[in-house]
Write a structure and sequence with these properties.
Beta-Lactamase; Rossmann fold; 3 domains; nine-stranded mixed beta sheet; 15 strands; disordered N terminus; T4SS_GSP_E_ATPase; ATPase; T2SS/T4SS_dom; ATP hydrolysis activity
């Protein structure tokens, strides 16, 4: 019987419970896979409309054979979800195509959270079971040559559109397989967008513009999801088009709209534990590539020494990000990372090295209403009595949401011109 014949007449009622619906979907999934196995060719290799027609026919056929009370709407929904599962990333497919969704968080098969405008919401989408989540993870990893199993239960990967994916499975994840997707936005944000979103104001933007032009070494600091990579992208648009940039990232996220960019990405070890290419090796190699500026996506380990040395050896105008709660904490975080790297450097010498390398720290924050904005812009002046000397140039008034330009003038000669030209 055709789909049109089944759909004729009054609309029937849906499955009694959500559990029944999920069970029916699982049964239909297996039924369709068996039907595909009976075909001479793999229908899944064809265009999506052909797959959709095949799946709908199979759903209708199964429901008619078993006289199931399923409505037209439910059949259409089941068919669409099954097509997504068979050809794409299951329930994630619709979220990946939703431009308003910036992050997708899967906490086991029953809980999918999404972020819109900086605020998390729970979605009504579901996976069938743990195996369904695991199949989608494997489908993501298959073209990338990455592995995820009990011996290697965590993985970072990148979707074809550039979105960043982290997956973790039992026994490490106690409540089932988990997926975190940081979506890649095709439309690169510009400075005008940051002004519209109140990430910064005209004075801060003008200062950053001049600081980039003066080849200041800039560190962008903040927590997860505060917009560090976005700000790094915007600052790259301010760099002179004649300069050569080398970017280094663990997972490529930067979208540098610049005519002369060399993009490098780290490589994890293979199944035998060989072939790893860490950030520190890429930084050392980048120094041999005649870069005007080095842009390191994030400082998180032993590469901190190499990037500080690069900033101190003539590669002015370099930029990077670090996770920290404040600009002052960012400097201490760099110290901590040096200590964790195993390098033995006297505290005073290390602090002098950090101060010589950095000119500005830009701190980002995310407010309770989801707004991502700059909370402070701090000049790194030097070390006095073994203590960092900093100068706050701009700060956020959290009560009013406005940005304040502080009264102090920068001490560094590079920043003085930027400060004078700020509105």
């Amino acid at each position: 019987m055709s789909g049109e014949a089944l759909f004729g007449g009054a609309v029937r009622y849906t499955a009694d419970t959500e559990q029944d619906s999920r069970g029916l979907k699982l049964t239909l999934h297996r039924y369709i896979i068996d039907s595909i196995d009976d075909e001479q060719v793999n229908i899944l290799e064809g265009p999506r409309p052909s797959v959709s027609r095949f799946v709908t026919d199979q759903v209708v056929d199964y429901i008619n054979r078993h006289h199931l009370p399923v409505s037209r709407y439910e059949i259409e929904r089941l068919a669409e979800e099954l097509v997504d599962e068979l050809t794409g990333f299951g329930p994630l497919e619709v979220l990946l195509h939703d431009a308003s969704v910036s992050e997708i968080l899967v906490n086991g098969p029953d809980r999918i959270f999404i972020e819109r405008a900086g605020v998390l919401y729970q979605s009504d989408l579901r996976f069938i079971d743990d195996q369904h989540v695991h199949r989608v993870i494997q489908r993501i990893l298959a073209p990338l040559g990455r592995r995820l199993d009990e011996s290697s239960p965590m993985v970072d990967a990148r979707l074809p559109d550039g979105s960043r994916v982290n997956a973790i499975i039992p026994p490490i994840a106690l409540d089932g397989p988990c997926i975190s997707v940081r979506k890649f936005h095709k439309d690169v944000l510009k400075s005008a967008d940051l002004l519209a979103y109140q990430t910064l104001d005209e004075s801060i933007l003008q200062f950053i513009n001049m600081a980039v032009a003066q080849r200041c070494n800039i560190m962008v600091s903040g927590g997860t999801g505060t917009g560090k990579t976005t700000l790094l992208n915007v600052m790259s648009l301010l760099i002179d088009s004649h300069e050569r940039l080398v970017t280094i990232e663990d997972t490529a996220e930067l979208q540098l709209n610049h005519p002369h960019v060399v993009r490098l990405e780290t490589r994890p070890p293979n199944a035998e534990g060989h072939g790893e290419v860490p950030s520190c090796a890429l930084i050392r190699n980048a120094l041999r590539m005649r870069p005007d500026r080095i842009i390191l996506g994030e400082i998180r380990g032993a590469e901190v020494i190499d990037v500080l040395q690069a900033m101190n050896t003539g590669h002015d105008g370099s930029m990077s990000t670090v996770h920290a709660n404040s600009a002052q904490d960012a400097l201490l975080r760099l110290e901590t990372l040096v200590g964790l790297s195993g390098r033995q450097i006297a505290e005073r010498t290390l602090r002098q090295m950090i101060c010589a390398a950095l000119d500005v720290v830009i701190q980002l924050t995310r407010l309770p209403n989801g707004r991502r904005c700059i909370s402070e812009v701090v000049e790194v002046v030097g070390v006095r009595d073994d203590v960092y000397v900093t100068n706050t140039l701009f700060s956020l008034d959290r009560a009013s949401g406005r940005f304040n330009r502080e009264a102090h003038n920068p001490a560094g000669h590079k920043l003085q011109a930027a400060w004078r030209n700020a509105l």
